[in-house]
5-methyltetrahydropteroyltriglutamate--homocysteine S-methyltransferase
Amino acid sequence: MVQSAVLGFPRIGPNRELKKATEAYWNGKTSVEDLLKVGKEIREQNWKLQKQAGVDIIASNDFSFYDQVLDLSVLFNVIPERYTKYNLAQLDVLFAMGRGLQRKATDSEPAVDVTALEMVKWFDSNYHYVRPTFGKNLTFKLNGQKPVDEFLEAKALGIQTRPVLVGPVSYLHLGKADKDNLELDPISLLDQLLPLYTEILQKLAAAGATEVQLDEPTLVLDLPANVQAAVKKAYTYFGQQSGLPKITLASYFGTAVPNLDALKGLPVAGFHFDFVRAPEQINDVIAAIGANQTLSVGIVDGRNIWKNNFAKSTEFVNQAVAKLGADRVVVATSSSLLHTPVDLENEAKLNPELKNYFSFATQKLGEVVTIAKNVSGQDVSAALKANAEAIAARANSSFINDQAVKDRVASIDAKMSTRAAPFPQRLEEQKPVFKLPLFPTTTIGSFPQTKDIRINRNKFNKGQLSAEEYEKFINSEIERVIRFQEEIDLDVLVHGEPERNDMVQYFGEQLKGYAFTTNGWVQSYGSRYVRPPIIVGDLSRPKAMSVKESVYAQSITKKHVKGMLTGPITCLRWSFPRDDIDQQTQAYQLALALRDEVNDLEAAGIKIIQVDEPAIREGLPLRAGAERSAYQVWAAEAFRVATSGVSNKTQIHSHFCYSDLDPNHIKALDADVVSIEFSKKDDANYIAEFKDYPNHIGLGLFDIHSPRVPSKEEFISKIDTILKTYPAEKFWVNPDCGLKTRGWEETRLSLTHMVEAAKYFREQYKN
Ligand SMILES: [Zn+2]
């Protein structure tokens, strides 16, 4: 019998229950007991759902109040000293590490002011984990036993689960040394960490767990020899301990083949590999695993929403069964389902034809079960027939194909993707147009999305506000943001984006070829969820998407207002892409639609246009090699196709979130000005990497994920550090990212301090 397995289920609840409960707790509206209760209810619901669907192997400890990697940091006491001095409760320490905490003193409690830990993209997904940060005075020990508690919770419901933890090598390799401890290689901490893993695994076994899933997604990266050696060492060590559950070592998001030598001969019960992303690894993997070890075949996509093709998947799994036998094969999701929306049945408004092509987390449970049954020879003919019909219907659907779009993509040439003059000449032509001071100040685009904005948008969507009334409201919000920016004396203004629900969805809704969900939320980080639109067919722009708001904003101020667009790669990455054509083609389709929008903005008198590409880094293939080099070329070209139709005098900006950007890749975009997230990257080497970047750049000066307000002095010291390496004449002053998740009060204070700091440096550099 081939078993079915799910590597993890979304923890946000079918109606975003976790977000509501967490935010209510943060705002002091509910107690910690209320929050814990909601967590418990979600876990119970998820386990029962999987049990009812017939899934054989169900995960526990896939739940988290913030992030599963952060949970491990707390569990192992990898807590930098700054979080421990306030005697906060453990859950509050966890939240402080995830999002920072700033609290005024009360009669009973002292003031608290701590920044958050660095947050990093989880591989090439749009999920973010809180980076383990290893300081000098680290004492590894167990804080509580969350994995055991949640295992027991499921057991009490009569559901046997397979607890999942990020494995020791990935945990260390994804972490970093704290700035007081920079000589440390985190992987050297393995010897201290292994006994703690052993302790928690023994406790799980004692509680009744017969197997565990240890996730080692770093196995799909290019690993240095010492990390490969750490894999061997860690799992050999576990093999020597007594009283541990059986271990399934799981990798996902790519091929593990280059690291297979490290896996050969390890004393584990089995391995999981992602065959959605890397089907080509099947033969190497089968050859590498030992006699009696099981192979978990990740064949149901944990990262996308398309219906599985049962016939193809069955054929694929049968290759493994033929060689290993049914008892050694498991049919599984490719990764945790964390990256997919919870339930397609929540989509009452979706076009039924399209709905028939999709599968969300809840539907994917049925998919692993059906494929496992089919491979095992059980009768699932009705499900197979319906599936084959849906797959055939999608291929021939009129939603998918548009010949005019295909022809236009084929016509892209070098001229379309090159600005008329190189940057130095553009800069000279732009100077008299903009007359900007040294250290020009700006923001990234969005301003706080208040309750008022959401209420009015909802009313408009429900038809309770007319188009004129809504436009009047949006204009009043734009005016408020413009006046605010004039008042605090920013140099380059934005309209604040009150009309936008989301930076991708807003444009997607206006493009032909996109579909939308009403409830298809996916966790991005902490309590921030996104609702990725779905690219279903060839993409085109029926009419202008953003010109009206930008033109209104420019009409009410003498300062320059940036037009704000989302770039082709970000639109692609933050949507669920098609799986029937390559991503490059989808990026070019988006680039052409955006090119028309950029040109329309310019024609309407907007002289600075920012095309954001925050997702360009996460799209980078995880491994060095041909695929990565090709991506760097086509991603940059897509950006340039979108932005090269303008005159030399028009200033093109771009923005990137998250660190570890390759300056050469950014250079290839040839934007006049770029801004990057920087505030949590306190690393002189990183600044140095951008020293020779030829165009202008704004290194983000404050963390917009945190409500914390930096002082003017803090800004000055930060800029001072940067200017030790970075040339003043190229430097723009801006926050890390857009401000839409922040409140107005903290926004006002932070930006005021930032502008004051810029003015301080203007004085310093006067002649
Ligand atoms: Zn950003």
Notes: The longest helix spans residues 32-53. The radius of gyration is 26 Å.
